[in-house]
Amino acid sequence: MAELGGQGGGVVADPRGVLRQGRAFLDFFWDIAKPEQEVRLAATENLLRHLKEGRKDDELKYTLKRLVEGLGATREAARPGFSLALAQVLQAFEEIPMCSVLEQIKEKHNLEKVKKKLVRNAAFGNFFGVVALFQSGRLIKDRKALLESIQLLQQLAHHQAHLRDLPRKTLIDIMSEVPEAVFEEVLFGILQSDLASAFTSPDNLHLLLVGIQKFPSVLKPKNLKKLFGSPTVVNEKNIPRLVELLQSAAKSEKKDKKLPSVVFDLLQVSLKEGAFELFWKEGVEDGLLKEKSGPVSYMCYRLLGSALPLLSLDQLQMVLKGKVMQQYGEHVVTTQLPDRFKFAPEMEGYIDEFLNSCDDLERQLAVIIGFSTLTNQGYPVLSSSSRVVRHLQPVALQKYVDWLKDMFLRPDFDCCLDFSSNRQKQNQENVNIPQHKIARLRKWIIHRLANIIESPVKKEESLVMDISRFCFFHAFFETKKKTSQICEANVLPSDPLDEEAHSVAENYFFGLLQTLNTLTVLGDTAKAAALREKHIHGVTADGKLWIFLIVEYANKLLSSEHVKAVKPFTKGQRDAWERTLQSVKNLQKKENKSDSAKVIAFQQLLLLMAIHLFKNQSETMDILSDLLNCTEKAFSKEPKKKKTDNAEPGWVEVMVEILLSLLAQPSLLVRRISKSVFVRICPNLTKRGLQLILDVLDPYQEQNEESAVVVMEESEKKIKSALDTDEEGSEDSSDEGDTEEENDSEDEEKNEEVDDDFRTQLMNVLQAGNALGGDESDEELDDEAMMALDKNISALFAEQQKRIQAKKDEKDRMRKEKILRRDFKIKVLDLIEAFLTKQSENPLVFDVIEPLLRVIEQCMSSDSDKQEIDFLQKTANIFKNSLCRTKQYCKRVDALKEDLHAFVERLVKKACKHTDSSVALYYFSASLYLLKVLRGNTSDKSSTPPTPLPEKQSNTIPQACQLLSTGCLDMERVTVIYQQALTQFLTKRNSALTSSMFHDLFRRFPIMCKPLVDTLVKSITAGARQHQQAQACLLLQKVLLLRELKLFVTEEEWEELIRESISQVTESLKMVGKRIVKADKEKVAKSLELLNILLKIVTEQKLHVKLTELDKVLVALNQPEGIGNSARLDSLYWNVMRWLNYTKPKKEKTANKPAQEAEPLKRKKKGFLPETKKRKNRKKGIEENGVAPVASEDGEPAAPEEQLLGTETPKQKKGLVPGSSKHKNQNRGVRENGVPVAGSGEEAVNGGDAVADKKKKKKKNMNRKRKGDAGNEAEQVPAAKKTKGSVSQETQQKQGKTNQQKQGKAKKKRKEKKTPVPQE
Questions:
Q1: What number of other Cβ atoms are within 10 A of residue 465's Cβ?
Q2: By CB atoms within 10 Å of each CB, which of 192, 264, 635, 1200 scores lowest?
Q3: What angle do CA 187, 192, 163 make, to 5 degrees?
Q4: Residue 418 gets which letter from DSSP?
Q5: CA-to-CA distance for 944 and 734, rounded, in angstroms?
Q6: E-strand spans in 1001-1067?
């Protein structure tokens, strides 16, 4: 408040009157200074609303005073908040003169009068004041205020240490908003010195460039010549100085990673002056690029990207073939390492923005072709999967595709800006080899064409088909003679395609097929829109499959004499081709008559295999012939007759084998189509067909998968060889990988143990050459003998090295084969999941359970590499979600009832025998799934009807009849199975079963509660250990809480169950000793929880159960040795005692007051442990007062916690001393439970005498060492004190004062409440 009445008080007539109006008005200014932007904005709005509603002059004047003062606040967040608020106030109240506010700002933040340490705040106060005037929108209208503000900004520009370039930028912003007349009349005069010195700093140059663009009639060439001697900014004379300024600007903006504004304005001025070519070649390429620094290079790249929308077609072509483009390409190639800054994504953003905003087709085409022709040894720098093509207009896209096709056929490197990196220049093998460049360019083009179909660009069906035909033709065909009948054969390649080029095109074509299979319907017709709404993919607007159109095109090529296949067909292969086409046509006729999805799935598979004839003819022929036979049988009118024929496999089994072999292929399209076909044939799947799939997952039958693995391995090798990139980064990484492998192999060679056979052979060679020294021969070997010996030894080591390498190769082959097999099994799991999802009601589902369990069990005990973990997780998810948790299950199990009961018994026994509980859980869950199936089925034979429900129960519990129904369950047999499992769980010490398994059983099948509840009740006392007894209490508690249980028992049985449960719990608690050990705590806790439920039932339902014995046991449990000070047990105990009409006694706090008042008198020295707290003195006081430590019942001295309160050390109280944690909280039950014990008054007397005695002997015992203390304690304290250990006096003195006070208060409270144990 004193601040408000100080400086500037003359502005407000009556500041006290403003302040008396309340805190709400002043709180606005506090909120404006807060760091949260939302709070500042809300406070500004509220302040404006308050001022507009009040219209009081004194409030407005006070507001201006506070806002002007806040402009120079110390907190950074407060300054812009006050500046914005001042701007809003000036904008809302136009009657406030701008000049008076500016004068007030200058007066408050006077740079000349302010102290040196407040210069920074004053500079910011002036700056934010001008910013507020400018943001109000009124500064430009007031010429005098504008002139003074510009002069103030010029003055602030000298304070660069604090404000940096903020005044110059604000000056430029103001100038860009000023009208031309105001600039000429007001500002031009005072800015002449700044404009004349434009070439001294980037800020002054920026000011000039903005003025030239904004006020061309004022800053015309004549005036420019007067200012700095030349009519233009960009000329040969000024280029060197401009380059220096731009370099300075680049280095100042390097942290922001953006193009400096002065550079972009200079680009625009050069275009305006017609000197862009001079600026680009002399200033950028020959000036800026010569300095090999990152910020300058990145500024040139950003300038290139920003210039694209401003340049004409000729200028674009000049820029895109210049040195900046080449250096950008070198940057992209050489920054492949992950930790290097990559500019390529930013440049792609510039291209994307240009293509999106440009409507000129020629300029669009020039830019996309310009970046496509920036090549590194033939391979374009622009990514072949770049998404920028999505903005191309249809005509430009068509021209770009035509250009790509033409470059593929007739590569023209004269139009390319080709370069080589330094590493490539050193490696002279591939430099300047035309074939190498052509191969790299064609590889990029074919991928670029395939990716255009995948990109979300607006395209026509004709363009998609054009690209597909082109890729297919050059993958599998060659032109013998030009013909106009086939577009792709109309032009001969200038350089014929070699085998590698065909292989690359082949692989990218199959990727294109995958894209076509998932392609949405193209076109704007109503039919196309209807197909899109149905989410139909892979077809044209008229409903034809894309793959079918390609097969038709392939058939046309096979019939033409002007082209030839790269791999010509034999007569048998051509017959299979013709047969496939005929089969597809037959299926198309049936498409509307039968299941269309099944027909389309078979069509896709047939067409895909037909196209694969061009790739792997020998392998595809066998699959195709079997597939054709299966298709004919699948769609024949009498398919069921084959099911009874066991002599040869049915068409379903053959189809499954085909699909399994196709799953081994690396093609995603093949696997997807195979899965879709499998889904369609699932209803026809037989047990033999399912067994073929399950055999793949069997860990003991991996030898059956060798053929599939070989197919997969070969195809993967082909893909890797075709898709191996030749880019710089990949070469570097491969080199590094080779060196790492060499190092690994060297290490392995060093660690390789020498076997005995090799040692024996080496000894023989040395003995044969007399190289081993001995007593018999002292002669040295001659040169010939030495050479012969060396030759033999080298041959021996070479042979040994070959054996070692052969072992490594075999080991590596086995490892790769294992990876391939595991990957194949993961793919086969997709078929299992599809079968379980689509055919959940099929009886064959039961055959899947054990194979999946074997896989889970085997994976749990095998290696834990990532692939194995993925395989295990996928199998477990399928087992849980697609099998056990499915809501649909088989409804026809009457014939399988006996087998399913045996299956349940087998699963439960395996769960019991298992040692791993996680695996046992899956076996137990499978048994519960079978129980669900058996209970959900109704037996055809006569079965005992469910007992009728009483009317009350049938009304209160919904679906009660369904709960009582057993379906096909043999209750006696199932009860025995689970009773044995439950007994084992509760009597065996180490069982893999868990309580959650049985809780799941009781919750899902309440009908199992009644037969098993007796076992639970008996196990409360008969359990193997305390843990099993606690689990029995827990399970019984869960069972009693199930409301369905009362459906299966009568009222007498229910009362007897409660009575027996209480009796068992009572006996269990009797077994607990007077001192509850750690092992008993869990059992006692669960017993008390169960008792709480039982007593609640007895009380609420008014059952006739005697609780006398229980009452005695519980009261006896509430002893110092019983519950102790366990908060959880204490809470559970009193929850139970509440049902027996006992109340928990309240703590008395009045007894602590005298001790607390006397406590400050005892502590006279601060910072030292009081004498009353020193252990030895306490003991002396105890001995002198005649209070000896009390012995326990078994004759041994009591533990420290059982002695007088206050005799334990601080570390014992915290549980840090060994032996002190076991019984440290035993007396809490006595204190809190309110059981009266005699002798409390005597303790207080003894304690007071002990304190007086200890004070007298303070000096004598201060500096005793630990040994001496121990000796004294041995004389004064019984022998039990030695065994418990002690803490030295020095350690006690290190405890802080706060801890001493807290411990002292806690001890005194215990002295008041706790009763000492009576002495014998």
A1: 17
A2: 192
A3: 75
A4: E
A5: 75
A6: none
* Adjacency order of strands within the sheet including 374-376: 379-380, 374-376, 417-419
- SS3 label, residue 685: coil
pLDDT at 781: 65
Q: What is the DSSP letter of 527?
A: H
Is residue 1182 within 8 Å of residue 1207, measured between CB atoms?
yes
pTM, full prediction: 0.67
Token readout for 86 is: 């001042």
- The answer to which of 52-66, 415-429, 469-483, 1296-1310 has the lowest mean pLDDT is 1296-1310
Rg (CA), the chain: 47
Res. 1165: pLDDT tops 80 = no
| 656 backbone dihedrals φ, ψ, rounded to 5° | -65, -45
CA-nearest of 1114, 1112, 1039, 1121 to 1073 is: 1121
Q: What is the DSSP letter of 958?
A: T
First to last CA, the chain: 75
* Residue in the block written with tokens 């040139």: 300
Count other Cβ atoms within 10 Å, centred on residue 767. 11
Give the DSSP per-residue string, 326-346: HHHHHHHHH--STTS---HHH
Contact 991, 985 (CB under 8 A): yes
Cα separation, 681 vs 563, whole angstroms: 39
Lowest mean pLDDT among 268-272, 622-626, 1135-1139, 1260-1264: 1260-1264
Residues 6+ away with beta carbon under 8 Å from 920: 910, 911, 912, 914, 992, 993, 994, 997
Examine the pLDDT at 528 and tell me if it is beyond 50.
Answer: yes
Cα separation, 200 vs 750, whole angstroms: 68
| The pLDDT value given to residue 1124 | 63
**Paired strand residues for 418:** 375
What secondary structure letter does DSSP report for 539? B
The torsion region of residue 426 among left (phi > 0), alpha (psi -120 to 50) and beta comes to alpha
Q: Is the dihedral of CA 571, 574, 578, 584 positive or negative?
A: positive
Burial class (CB in 10 A: 0-12, 13-18, 19+), 1249: middle
Q: What is the pLDDT of residue 367?
A: 95
**How far is Cα 207 from Cα 688, in angstroms, rounded to an integer?**
86
- Long-range contacts: 846-852, Cβ < 8 Å, 24+? 846/890, 846/896, 846/900, 846/903, 846/930, 847/687, 847/690, 847/691, 847/694, 848/690, 848/694, 848/883, 849/883, 849/903, 849/907, 849/926, 849/929, 851/694, 851/697, 851/698, 852/697, 852/878, 852/879, 852/883
> Could you give phi then psi for residue 1267, rounded to 5 degrees?
-65, -45
Name the pLDDT band for 1274 (thresholds 50, 70, 90). Answer: very low
Rounded to 10 degrees, what is the CA torsion of 533, 535, 536, 540? Answer: 50
pLDDT tens per residue, range 565-608: 998 999 999 999 999 999 988 888 877 666 677 788 888 889 98
DSSP string, 575-626: HHHHHHHHHHHHHHHHTTTS-HHHHHHHHHHHHHHHHHTTT-HHHHHHHHHH
Exposed / middle / buried, residue 346 (Cβ in 10 Å: 0-12, 13-18, 19+): middle
Instruction: Give the type of residue at 769.
Output: G
User: How far is residue 980's CA from residue 204's CA, in Å, rounded to a whole number?
Assistant: 94
pLDDT band at residue 683 under the 50/70/90 scheme: confident
pLDDT band of residue 339 (cuts 50, 70, 90) is low
Q: Which of 197, 190, 185 is nearest to 171 (CA)?
A: 190
Average pLDDT over residues 1026-1032: 90
For residues 852 and 872, the answer to whether their CB atoms sit within 8 Å is no
CA-closest candidate to residue 741, choices 840, 798, 677, 809 = 809
How many helices (DSSP H) and strands (DSSP E) are in the chain?
A: 63, 5
CB atoms within 10 A of CB 219: 22
Reported as a pLDDT band with limits 50, 70 and 90, residue 903 is very high
